[in-house]
Specification:
The structure is a single chain. A hairpin with a 6-residue loop joins β1 and β2. The protein is mainly α. It is elongated, with a radius of gyration of 17 Å. It binds zinc ion (2 copies).
């Protein structure tokens, strides 16, 4: 077991990037951004329709809304 409570050096020029990805140690400014990124490592940002992998959940959602857009157009075809 590894002690996970390590003091962070806030003098480090992280530019406010206080959240680290637990998979690749990439730093993020907000916890939600970090979480969203970690979903990529968990395979949750993979498009199930075309198997494309995105870096963020938002990117996948935008991809689905554009590339695989359901019939949301208010106009007819
Ligand atoms: Zn990562
Ligand atoms: Zn897709």
């Amino acid at each position: 077991m590894v002690a996970g409570k390590r003091q962070r050096d806030y003098n480090f020029s992280s530019g406010g990037m206080d959240y680290a990805c637990q998979f690749c140690a990439r730093m993020f400014r907000t916890k939600s951004n970090c979480w969203s990124h970690e979903q990529m490592h968990l395979g949750n940002t993979t498009c199930h329709l075309c198997n494309k992998v995105f870096s963020f959940m938002q990117a996948l959602h935008r991809h689905n809304a554009t590339v695989h857009a359901p019939q949301q157009s208010p106009k007819k075809f």
